[in-house]
Amino acid sequence: MFKGTYTAIVTPFKGGQIDEAAFQRLIAKQIRGGVDGIVPMGTTGESPTVSFEEHVRVIRLAVAFSEGKVKVIAGTGANSTNEAIYLTRAAEEAGADGSLQVAPYYNKPSQEGLFQHFGAIAKATKLPIVLYSIPSRCGVEIGVDTTARLAREFKNIVGIKEAGGAPDRVSQLRIAVGNGFTILCGDDSLTLPFMAVGAHGVISVASNILPKEVSQMVRAFTAGDLKAAMKLHGRLFPIFRVLFIETNPVPVKAALAMRGDIEEEYRLPLVPLNRENREILQKTLQENRALKV
Prior knowledge:
Blueprint: E1 4-7, E2 13-14, E3 17-18, H1 20-33, E4 37-38, H2 52-66, E5 71-75, H3 81-94, E6 98-102, H4 111-123, E7 129-133, H5 135-138, H6 144-153, E8 157-162, H7 167-177, E9 182-185, H8 191-196, E10 201-204, H9 211-222, H10 226-242, H11 250-258, H12 275-287
Helix pairs in contact: 1-2, 1-9, 2-3, 3-4, 4-6, 6-7, 9-10, 11-12
């Protein structure tokens, strides 16, 4: 089971290419920070704008640079089932520990379509699969009943990243799928509320810059130290919020660039923060001691 803190790691670019040296440094910092795993090629990794070759390359690099010290859940979802199968098989060959499968976006399949889509991927791989429901981006939610049906029918569908913003849905999922099925929060600011009703941890954006603190918060809550968890949440909450002042991953890459960890480079249609939001981001990071390297 995947539990704890998993960093939805950014993909650094330099001169239009993947900055492999910076990526290695980022992963080393994640390991030192005590995260349980990383998730390359998710939303935060800008998966929609990389080529197939780059997508697979990033996953291979993530596995190699992790050196078995943290788990690698590779983002291999797509709105084409065949594409998702291709990427998932490549991730399995690369040595990933699991696959994150986002709901197909834009084409808005029915719940039966979602079941058939994820089922076909599950049949094509031995990797443990974590579903990813984020209706704000995909236009479709992976239903509770569909999730439970997939969990019953396919033993390698082992969890879900829930980014629908509602603790109530976590409760529904927990009842429907039982305690053996992993639920990971997909919104940093909701990590503790989600864990309070049955989630096992978080796939975090904020841990790109504060892996130690996010990991400590999750571990404190898991250990029953609610006072420590709440204290950390209170400190981190302004950062959780400001990292979504514009579309993810623009703010978190800007934050990493402010610290000198990466070049601030995106691929269109993503563009840099506007000046006002950049000032707000920098001020918030400074006030919360998040700009130290």
